Amino acid sequence: RIGTAALAVQVVGSNWPKPHYTLLVTGLCRFQILQLLKEKPYPVAEVEQLDRLEQFTNQPKSEEELGELSEQFYKYAVQLVEMLDMSVPAVAKLRRLLDNLPREALPDILTSIIRTSNQEKLQILDAVRLEERFKMTIPLLVRQIEGLKLLQKTRKPKQDDDKRVVAIRPNRRINHIPSAIEDEEEEEDHDDVVMLEKKIRTSSMSEQALKVCLKEMKRLKKMPQSMPEYALTRNYLELMVELPWNKSTKDRLEIRAARILLDNDHYAMEKLKKRVLEYLAVRQLKNNLKGPILCFVGPPGVGKTSVGRSIAKTLGREFHRIALGGVCDQSDIRGHRRTYVGSMPGRIINGLKTVGVNNPVFLLDEVDKLGKSLQGDPAAALLEVLDPEQNHSFTDHYLNVAFDLSQVLFIATANTTATIPPALLDRMEIIQVPGYTQEEKIEIAHRHLIPKQLEQHGLTPQQIQIPQVTTLDIITRYTREAGVRSLDRKLGAICRAVAVKVAEGQHKEAKPDRAEVGEGEDCKEHVTEDAKPESISDTADLALPPEMPILIDFHALKDILGPPLYEMEVSERLSQPGVAIGLAWTPLGGEIMFVEASRMEGEGQLTLTGQLGDVMKESAHLAISWLRSNAKRYQLTNASGSFDLLDNTDIHLHFPAGAVTKDGPSAGVTIVTCLASLFSGRLVCSDVAMTGEITLRGLVLPVGGIKDKVLAAHRAGLKRIILPRRNEKDLEEIAVNVRQDLTFVLASCLDEVLNAAFDGGFAVKPGVEHLSSKL
Ligand code: ADP
Fold it and tell me: What is the tens place of the pLDDT at every residue in 217-229?
């Protein structure tokens, strides 16, 4: 029931690997507990202060005896301290303390310094009377002195050890609360360290790693626990033990099963699935293939990541995704050296620790978005990881020993190859994953996305019904994307809304509900406009019996998702001369682009806006030059009727959207068509889109990204597409149903382009050519 009142001065420690704190307190006095007031959350008690120093010194009756005792005690204390090495600052300080402190305080202080058991320390603490305390401490001092003498005799040359013992101990002298728990903890820690050592010895790490670990273990044992490095070293050793040096899962690979699994998980994407199966087949035939690293390149949301996951599933391997977007520090890949505070292993080693086997599938997501900074180039670090010739001895800076990555199957994904560093690109085999057609999206939605969303929202097909027309509506009017991610989100939004209805039990009264919606003015308009009134009455009727599903029709869609985000605006924007539709390729898939031109009085200057790159600017100059040289042939004149188109005229060309940087040669034909429309005053057909590079002679050269561009035109509802003739082969990749909806005009020169772009053709003035041939 006796304790020490103390003032907490400092608390240091860490929570890892397990809570370990050092508490610095200043002891004030002894106290006795009179009455415990409460125990939780912390004990509160009424206490009585037991020792007051002045009280003891003023006690006249025992003064003499005490004086003798304290003198004796002082002598022993001095003798003990003088046996130690005075050159150690802590010892010298202790010597000074002996003289400066009141004698009455000495027993407490010395007891905490000398080697005593916790039991003995507690006895001293319990000794309230000073006289008793002196009497009890003296034997302890004598024992320590004798011990030291003996030690000095037996280990003369090794005096250092004693110094160390005492040099460390004074640090703890203020720590007056000796408790059994402390001892227990120390023992527990010791046990942990022993266990760790055992684990290291029994683990299957490489010889080199084992050597390093044992060396670190030796250091760890000598370190006091309060040293920050203790935790660091321990973390390191624990990581080394946890790493899957030799642990792997057994590949189960059966091509037929793999094909079924891939087909079940993913609709369409035939080319990608074919290549993946080839890859897996080669792995099956030639065990342990040092094959190329596959890199899936395509717009977001086309299933690159999920194919990666399926591959892991077919192989029966663990899957781990490493997001590389925005990583600009090479230590993210390769780890920090252990000398830094807070150093960590890189993501590769961390991933291995997480999955716990050495042959997982690692998906390196977004390799095209690696950054670069002063902290080094992460792409360069990745080179070593991805090179099959090097990665069997990948050295993470934190581990500082080689780890064999050759069993890991790496798959990378990217939106574009343009920003992948060439050296990295060289290590990988690129597989293009183009965007989906509308039909494919509908199938994907009904086969995969809707069932998944239903499950996530706890709904059943008996509660909600999304017909294909609704899905098509979502695809065309609420999303504009190459992949299916927004479509998935919109379906999620619908499911949420339905979940609320179902949860409220409101769908049972769907009829009044529907009527209520109908009352809104917006909806009334649509009922008449949409010419699909039967679906509403359907819903109402269907909803009557409570167990019927909620049908998502156009009106429900509008209620849930709001008014449509995208409308077909093509024809409207082509209602004046000087506008043409081009096709552009972006990392997010294909897109249609309205190229606009206007002319005004001026000095023959060309203004280009829309953040264009150099190649695109050159295309614009090429287009103007070609038109100027062919103005007579086509009867193109400027405002004042002159065939010199730039005479007293300025031209402004704009490529929306203004904030997006654009470059590439493929807008050449569009610019020519747009300017031809401007100078001839004729409208370009509103359902025609085009792409192609031009030359000064008026030839049309092939360009890339045809499939994505055609899909974009199809999405936008265009009907005719003008392509370079040499791109004809690319059309084979396009799904038959898309091809059927579109007319392709293959052009090898600009005359053919202009002819196809204007209703009724764009005739060359007869006679002009005769004249020129005469010359
Ligand atoms: P990415 O990695 O290409 O950006 P994800 O792999 O994350 O795209 O795909 C987004 C979502 O679309 C996933 O939920 C995925 O299941 C789904 N998805 C994409 N393509 C298909 C497909 N062909 N079949 C089934 N689901 C698909």
Answer: 888 888 777 777 7
Q: What distance in Å separates the CA atoms of residue 589 and residue 608, rounded to the nearest whole number?
A: 24
409 & 475 share domain: no
Residues known to be catalytic: 666, 709
Task: Report the mean per-residue pLDDT for the chain.
Answer: 78
- Average pLDDT, integer, range 707-720: 84
Do 464 and 411 share a structural domain?
A: no
Instruction: Tell how far the Cα of 194 is from the centroid of ligand 1, in angstroms.
Output: 49
Expressed in angstroms and rounded, the spacing between residue 486 Cα and the centre of ligand 1 is: 11
Looking at 225-318, which runs of residues are DSSP E strands? 293-297
Give helix 533-543 / helix 510-519 axis angle, nearest 10°: 150
154 in a labelled binding site: no
What is residue 61's three-state secondary structure? coil
| Rg, the chain, Cα only | 41
> Which atom of ligand 1 lies at the shortest distance from residue 308's CA?
6
State mean pLDDT over 245-273: 84
Residue 299 lies in a domain: yes
Using DSSP, state whether 31 is helix, strand or coil.
strand
How does residue 320 score in pLDDT terms, banded at 50, 70 and 90? very high
In a domain, 625, yes or no: yes
Q: Which of 398, 413, 432 is the last residue of a domain?
A: 432
CA of 302 to the centre of ligand 1 (A): 5
How confident is the model over 72-86, as pLDDT tens digits?
888 888 888 888 777
> What is the Cα 672 distance to its own chain's centre?
44
Return d(Cα 588, Cα 748) in angstroms, integer: 29
Query: What is the count of structural domains for the chain?
Result: 5
Tens digits of residue pLDDT in 48-70: 888 765 555 555 555 566 778 88
> Is-contact 722 757, C-beta < 8 A?
yes
Q: What range does the domain containing 371 cover? A: 255-432
459 and 417: one domain? no
Helix axes 554-561, 485-504, angle to 10 degrees: 100
Among 306, 310, 450, 488, the mutation site with the greatest number of ligand 1 atoms within 8 A of its Cβ is: 306
Ligand-binding annotation for 128, yes or no, is no
Give 534 or 349, the one with higher predicted confidence. 349
